[in-house]
Inverse folding.
């Protein structure tokens, strides 16, 4: 079975981090999320992938090529204009089989496909939507299902106490080819807003299957940070890109950590990072490769992509910095998200 990965969204909510890269390529614990996703699909026997591109297509194409470096085969589609989630699926029609998977490539999850695929086979619907349970459904579109799992309707952002369930669309679908005939070609179409309601209205079988395990849409700054903390806390059981030197402290190759520096777990440090004396890193910090953190700097609940420079004595709390950002000496930043080239935040 082939999987279509939807990776062409603008990622507006994650700006400015997505100003220069597609959201699924945002690093999670120093590794592009899309790598984790592709490797999980491969582990579960999905070796033929199609990636639907729109924004910064070369970023993804040059990274994955034909997929052979990752042990899978990858084809690409490229949209002239954004076609939305369903439009992108329709656009890939010639590359898809009779039954296929479609996934939002920006959802961080630990995927267990087998139960979802079995459910789909047993129920024989046109589409089975993977569902995930959330505590507060008022911010999402929730589903109302029959006992057999057939979806009756979607309720957008229900008021407190009025939600028919706590189950929301997890952005992972098993589809039969017939679904494609419901999607008009050449224009923007959303699966949630148009295609699924139309399928339900037509009487086609639209089922929902509650999936177990970790799920987080990393579409906002807060959730992007949370994914990291969940990975470091091992609530999200994906491999951490580094050697665990002490409990909760992962360090890459060729790092130089000053004897007077303090690492407070959980912390992940990439390759060739230099940390000066008196610096305090963590709790909850992810430092990309080739970063330099000078003496007496303090970082807490902060993520830093590659090649950043933190000058002497800077204080950073709940921040995210894109590649090559420089933080000036003794700067104090709280809840900042910066993605500009070097010297953007200097004194
Ligand atoms: P926001 O702009 O912040 O809403 O993000 P987004 O549009 O990138 O993501 P959203 O959650 O709305 O989309 C879900 C998934 O579908 C993401 O993986 C997107 O990359 C993808 N996607 C959304 N729109 C398109 C599109 O027009 N074309 C393609 N190929 N993929 C899309």
């Amino acid at each position: 079975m082939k999987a279509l990965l939807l990776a062409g969204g603008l990622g507006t909510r994650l700006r400015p981090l997505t100003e220069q890269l597609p959201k699924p390529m945002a690093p999670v614990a120093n590794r592009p999320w899309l790598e984790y996703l592709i490797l999980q699909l491969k582990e579960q026997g999905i070796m033929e992938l199609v990636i639907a591109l729109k924004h910064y297509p070369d970023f993804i194409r040059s990274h994955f090529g034909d997929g052979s470096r990752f042990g899978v085969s990858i084809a690409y589609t490229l949209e002239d204009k954004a076609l939305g989630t369903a439009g992108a699926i329709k656009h890939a029609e010639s590359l898809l089989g009779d039954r296929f998977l479609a996934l939002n490539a920006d959802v961080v999850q630990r995927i267990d496909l087998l139960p979802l695929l079995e459910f789909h086979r047993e129920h024989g619907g046109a589409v089975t939507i993977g569902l995930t349970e959330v505590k507060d459904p008022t911010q999402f579109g929730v589903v109302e299902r029959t006992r057999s799992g057939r979806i009756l309707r979607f309720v957008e952002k229900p008021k407190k106490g009025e939600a028919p369930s706590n189950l929301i669309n997890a952005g992972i679908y098993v589809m039969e080819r017939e679904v494609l005939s419901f999607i008009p070609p050449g224009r923007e179409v959303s699966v949630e807003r148009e295609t699924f309601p139309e399928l339900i209205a037509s009487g086609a079988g639209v089922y929902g299957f509650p999936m177990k395990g970790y799920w987080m849409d990393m579409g906002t700054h807060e959730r992007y940070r949370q994914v990291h903390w969940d990975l470091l806390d091992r609530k999200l059981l994906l491999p951490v890109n580094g050697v665990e030197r002490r409990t909760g402290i992962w360090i890459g190759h060729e790092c130089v950590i000053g004897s007077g520096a303090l690492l407070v777990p959980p912390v992940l440090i990439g390759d060739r990072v230099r940390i000066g004396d008196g610096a305090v890193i963590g709790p909850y910090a992810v430092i990309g490769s080739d970063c330099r953190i000078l003496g007496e700097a303090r970082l807490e609940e902060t993520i830093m992509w590659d090649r950043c420079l933190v000058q002497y004595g800077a204080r950073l709390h709940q921040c995210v910095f894109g590649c090559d950002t420089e933080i000036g000496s003794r700067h104090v930043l709280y809840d900042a998200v910066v993605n500009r080239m070097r010297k953007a935040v200097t004194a």
Remarks:
- The CA atoms of residues 78 and 86 lie 14 Å apart.
- The pocket of guanosine-5'-triphosphate is lined by residues 6-13, 23-24, 52, 54, 79, 82-85, 88, 104-106, 219 (CB under 6 Å).
